[in-house]
Design brief:
Belongs to the proteasome subunit S5A family. This is 26S proteasome non-ATPase regulatory subunit 4 homolog (26S proteasome regulatory subunit RPN10) (OsRPN10) (26S proteasome regulatory subunit S5a homolog) (OsS5a). Keywords: Proteasome. Strand 2 and strand 3 form a beta hairpin. The chain has a six-stranded mixed β-sheet, sandwiched between helices. It has 384 residues and is α/β, with parallel strands linked by helices. The longest helix has 40 residues. The chain is built from 16 helices and six strands. It folds into three domains: 214 residues, Rossmann fold, CATH 3.40.50; 41 residues; 115 residues, no CATH class. The termini are far apart.
Length: 384
């Protein structure tokens, strides 16, 4: 953007107390003015911005054109409301401030917010506009609140001051944040972005990489929005890449998300070392058995079951039987995709497991019976 010096003229009259803009005209104007100041200084590092108020005790220059954003924000932070706005005198003093700016290079521009009735006669306004045009001063008017009453005068003024489409009239509808309208208007995007003085425009949005927030004004919010946008963009690209494989990537992600976590390292290594696309039913069943062993060993319920079968927590056949509990494995297999629990090979494996457990139970019963017989013999011998 070209080098430019800008004077921002603020309306601080009694009319700015109205609440037809959120929260008031004054607060809405303040946010919009900060947006204008930030964008002007960011578009070119040598551009300068000044601020003046048009009501109260009279026109007051709060800040001469400067590139120090801190001074600009401080000047616009504590503005008092009162009196009537001097539209004509505000324009003339703004022109003088630009004429006496330190850096004489670059263009000159006045951005004036109008939130109260313009009492100056249209004939005088046109005369001032011609003087500004002769001095190569462009003017952007931001009309808010009294747009219908001021429309004829403001339109005549812009037509008189306009030179090669360098001046614009932007009307802010009631209930709409002025900053939301200005961000896509020629006031922010420049002469090339807006396309006329109507306040619309299809130019590129300023600070689009920060969600439309000026990082100079709110760096924390701007960075949060930027990170959020980058994350959303990355997620969208990832979904697009996955969708390019006939939905296969989404199916894999869903299967992985639904799979219960395993505490056994062997089960995780087996799952990591095998390509799911190449796994047949036998491989899936083997992986399921490994995972079930890990989960059963990690759960307290399985531990208590192991203790009841094995007679203490010492391990051996009782622990192995609990790890390969047929009922648990059969229930797990029913929830696995592409696995048929009624497959003859799977049923045979489950039957073999049941048979092994039954044999263990029989051995335990035989052992208990022998112990009982020994006790009976000892009691009988003691009685004799």
């Amino acid at each position: 953007m070209p080098l430019e010096s800008t004077m921002v003229c603020l309306d601080n009259s009694e009319w700015m107390r109205n609440g037809d803009y959120t929260p008031t005209r004054m607060e809405a104007q303040h946010d919009a003015a900060n947006l204008v100041c930030g964008s002007k200084t960011q578009q070119n590092p040598e551009s300068t911005v000044g601020i003046l108020t048009m009501a109260g005790s009279g026109v007051q220059v709060l800040c001469s054109p400067t590139d120090d954003m801190g001074k600009i924000l401080t000047a616009s932070s504590n503005i008092k409301i009162g009196g009537k706005s001097g539209f004509a005198s505000g324009l003339q003093i703004a022109q003088l401030a630009l004429k006496h700016r330190k850096n004489k290079n670059g263009g000159q521009r006045i951005v004036m917010f109008v939130g109260s009735p313009v009492e100056t006669e249209e004939k005088k306004l046109v005369k001032i506009a011609k003087q500004l045009k002769k001095g190569n001063v462009a003017v952007d008017l931001v009309s808010m609140g009294e747009s219908e009453a001021n429309e004829a005068k403001l339109t005549a003024f812009i037509e008189a001051v306009n030179k090669n489409s360098n001046s614009h009239l932007v009307t802010i509808p009631r209930g709409v944040l002025p900053s939301d309208v200005l961000i896509t208007s020629p006031v922010i995007t420049g002469e090339e972005g807006g396309g006329g003085g109507g306040g619309g425009g299809g130019g590129a949005t300023m600070f689009s990489e920060f969600g439309g927030v000026d990082p100079n004004l709110d760096p924390e919010l701007a960075m949060v929005l930027r990170m959020s946008m980058e994350e959303s963009r990355a997620n969208a690209e990832g979904q697009a890449d996955a969708g390019g494989d006939d939905g296969g990537g989404e199916a894999k992600a869903a299967e992985t998300a639904d799979r219960p976590p395993s505490s056994a390292g062997g089960g995780e290594q087996a799952a990591a070392g095998m390509d799911e696309e190449e796994m047949d039913e036998d491989s899936l069943m083997q992986q399921a058995l490994l995972m079930s062993m890990g989960e059963t060993g990690a759960s307290s319920g399985a531990t208590s079951s192991s203790s009841s079968r094995g007679g203490g927590g010492g391990g051996g056949k009782g622990d192995a039987a609990s790890f390969l509990d047929p009922g648990f494995v059969e229930g797990l297999l029913k929830n696995l995709p592409d696995v048929n629990p009624d497959d003859p090979a799977i049923q045979q494996a489950l039957n073999n497991t049941r048979g092994a457990n039954d044999d263990d139970d029989d051995e335990e019963d035989d052992g208990d019976s022998k112990k009982k017989k020994k006790k009976d013999k000892k009691k009988k011998k003691d009685k004799e």
